[in-house]
Every structure is written in C-alpha cells, then in structure tokens.
C-alpha cells in the first residue's frame, strides 16, 4: 500500500521488550517530520521521548496513552494527503494480523561478557561491525554499561562500540585501588589494549568524562576524539547530597528522591531503575567500592579533580554535551572550556544521554 508508513514501538537497548505510551505530542491530522518528537515512552529503565522515524501526516493514532505494547507494535500510521480511510484500515488490519511480538527468550543479539584483562576484571558489551573507528562508552559514578542502553545500538550502526563497567561498578571487579580517576583510567587503558582498540573515540559521562580525559592525557595514541557528557572535573562543585544519598540510602522511597536529582522531570525515574540500584549495592564489595571512589573524587559539595587546564593541552577534538537543568554538575561548568565544541540541551538533566538520547547520539557522531 504505497504512501502508508508505520510508526512502531522502538527498541531501546537489548533488554527492552515493551514500552508504555505515556503521552502524545501530536494529534491525528498533524504533519510531522522525521526526527520530530512525537510522544513519550516509558521503559523499565527510564521514560524517553520518541522521534518520528518518517515524515508525513499522522493519519491514525493506534496506541492510546497508558497502553503498554511490545517492541515493534503499531503506534500510529503516517499517510499522504488524500489517502482513503479504507486503505488505512486495510493497512492496519494487515499489520496487526501479521505482527509477532518478540519472545523474552529470543535472540537479542550480543550479550554483556565479563573478561579478564591485565590487572582487572571488566564487564563489557561490544556490538557493531568489525571496521570503523571504535567508540568506547564510559559511565559515571554509581552507573554501569546499561546506562548507554539508548545510545549504543544507534552508535553501532556503522562502527564497533564498546560499553564497559568501570572497576567497582556493575559486573566488573570491585577492587578500585585508591578510587582515583587515574586508577579508573588504568582499567580503561588495560581494556583497550587487551581488545586492540587503537584511536578510539571515548565518550564519558560525569565521572566517566573525567576518566576519558585522563586516558587521553596519559595515552594519547589510544584516543582519536572525546565526547564529554556532563563531565566531572570542570568546576569546583558537585551536589554532595546526590553522592552521599546514592551511597547511604537503602530504602526505595528515599533512594528514588536521590535518583530524581539525575533528571529534569522526576517522573522519568522508574521503579525498576530504583530497584536496580538497590540490587547492585547489595553485591559483595559494591558499597565499599563506591565509598572509595567517592572519597577519592569528591568532598562534600566539592570536586577534588580540576581538569580544566588539561583540556587545552589535548590534541584530540573535544565535544561537550550538557543538560541545562543538570542538578548534579551545573551546566555552567561548560563555560570557558576552550577548544571544546559545546552543545547545551535545554530542559535536560544530568543523565542527558538517556533523557535526550537521539540528540546526544547525533552530537557524538557529528
């Protein structure tokens, strides 16, 4: 049926099987462009805006607000002006009759692995082709490689992309040494050399941004470019309440209030996100590792690292992405970052790569 196109439930991250439509930003009859934000979808990780994959007129909205649907399910139909309603009806009927939801135990593609590299046990998720400039994704304090669930698959369309858990985080070993940026960067270097990743583009979020800068300073031959997402180390202050609360809170309700500091809209924090953090903190050695990393890098509301002067000495191109509503590391820290290309995303918080994934992905690839 020429001229009729489907908008379907996206797949953000390997583990996503379904999503809930929490709001439409367009109505039937509206003209939309590819890349335009048209709805908000909540997953087990976080709520996120969905950009239309096609251009045209929203002829029919199929999914209602509050409806939970599997990946690939029909959400709306785009059709050209003058398309007969009967043709749209037939298209929808044919789609629904032939749609098969993904199986929970099906092949979801590459899986995270835990490997031994010299001096470290590292959990990683690698995907993408075997050629092209590799990207290495480095998460922030308290997070893990799953924080890149909305980014990695898109970035891996044309190049290899490796997401790793830093020491003390996720499924990596819990020995963090002195917990410093230098100690954490040593693990990244060891992983890259073990995997034979020359000239990689490092993408670091928050504390991971400081780690990426340290790798570029110490091993410039390994780094072709840097993208720093709300990076630590470029301003004097940090929200100490977030760091302290992330470590100390063991009740879901109180921890939720801490995690809400990460986003501009508290409603984006899901129950699964809260429970995931609590499960991680129960792992042997996890809390001690977090405390060591926090003590090495932060003191109250102050940051111990000052990397601003190091930026001008880097030979690699540097991009910086920050959410204007960041309540953990103020976006004002981007002021005066000489030599860096700054992208400020209005209305986004600290985990801007999750809140505004498509825009951050375009910045990384640009």
Q: How is this structure best described in words?
A:
It is built from eleven helices and 18 strands. With 366 residues, the protein is of the alpha/beta class. It is globular and about 65 Å long. The strands form four sheets. It has an eight-stranded mixed sheet, with helices on both faces.
Instruction: Work out the strand percent.
Output: 15-25%
> What is the CA-CA span between the terminal residues?
35 Å
Structural class: alpha/beta
Total domains: 2
Q: What's the count of strands? A: 18
Q: Low-confidence spans: pLDDT under 50, at least 5 residues?
A: none
Q: What characteristic shape results from the CA principal axes?
A: globular
CATH class of the largest domain: Alpha Beta
Question: Could you describe the largest sheet, including whether it forms a barrel?
Answer: 8 strands, mixed
Strand order of the largest sheet: 9-10-12-11-13-14-17-18
Q: What is the CATH third-level topology name of the largest domain?
A: Rossmann fold
**Level-2 CATH architecture of the largest domain:** 3-Layer(aba) Sandwich
List the topology elements.
Layout: E1 4-8, E2 18-24, E3 31-32, E4 37-42, E5 47-51, E6 56-61, E7 68-70, E8 74-79, H1 85-98, E9 113-117, E10 120-127, E11 135-138, H2 152-155, E12 161-164, H3 181-195, E13 200-205, H4 207-218, E14 223-229, H5 240-248, H6 252-259, H7 271-281, H8 286-297, E15 298-299, E16 302-303, H9 308-311, E17 318-323, E18 340-345, H10 352-355, H11 357-365
Parallel strand pairs: 11-12, 11-13, 13-14, 14-17, 17-18
Antiparallel strand pairs: 1-8, 2-4, 2-7, 3-6, 4-5, 6-8, 9-10, 10-12, 15-16
Helix pairs in contact: 3-4, 5-6, 6-7
């Amino acid at each position: 049926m020429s001229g009729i196109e489907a908008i379907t439930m996206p797949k953000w991250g390997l583990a996503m099987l379904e999503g809930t439509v929490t709001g439409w930003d367009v109505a039937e009859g509206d003209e939309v462009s590819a890349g335009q934000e048209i709805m908000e979808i909540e997953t087990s990780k976080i709520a996120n805006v969905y950009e239309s994959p096609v251009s045209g007129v929203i002829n029919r909205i199929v999914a209602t607000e509050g409806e939970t649907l599997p990946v690939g399910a029909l959400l709306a139909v785009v059709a050209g002006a003058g398309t007969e309603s009967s043709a749209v009806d037939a298209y929808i009927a044919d789609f629904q009759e032939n749609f098969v939801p993904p199986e929970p135990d099906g092949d979801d593609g590459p899986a995270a692995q835990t490997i031994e590299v010299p001096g470290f046990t590292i959990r990683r998720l690698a995907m993408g082709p075997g050629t092209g400039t590799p990207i290495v994704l480095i998460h922030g304090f308290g997070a893990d490689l799953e924080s890149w669930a909305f980014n990695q698959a898109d970035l891996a369309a044309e190049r290899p992309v490796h997401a790793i858990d830093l020491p003390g985080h996720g499924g990596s070993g819990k020995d963090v040494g002195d917990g410093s940026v230098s100690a954490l960067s040593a693990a990244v270097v060891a992983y890259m050399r073990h995997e034979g990743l020359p000239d990689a583009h490092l993408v670091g979020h928050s504390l991971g941004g400081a780690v990426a800068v340290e790798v570029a300073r110490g091993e410039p031959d390994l780094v072709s470019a840097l993208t720093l997402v709300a990076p630590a180390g470029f301003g004097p202050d940090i929200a100490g309440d977030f760091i302290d609360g992330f470590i100390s809170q063991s009740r879901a309700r109180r921890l939720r209030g801490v995690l809400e500091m990460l986003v501009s809209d508290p409603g984006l924090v899901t129950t699964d996100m809260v429970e995931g953090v609590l499960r991680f903190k129960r792992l042997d050695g996890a809390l001690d590792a977090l405390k060591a990393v926090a003590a090495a890098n932060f003191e109250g509301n102050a940051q111990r690292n000052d990397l601003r002067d190091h930026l001008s000495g880097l030979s690699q191109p540097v991009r910086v992405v920050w959410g204007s509503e960041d309540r953990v590391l103020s976006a004002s820290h981007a002021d005066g970052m000489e030599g860096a290309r700054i992208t400020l995303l209005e209305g986004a918080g600290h985990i801007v790569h999750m809140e505004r994934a498509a825009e951050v992905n375009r910045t990384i690839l640009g």
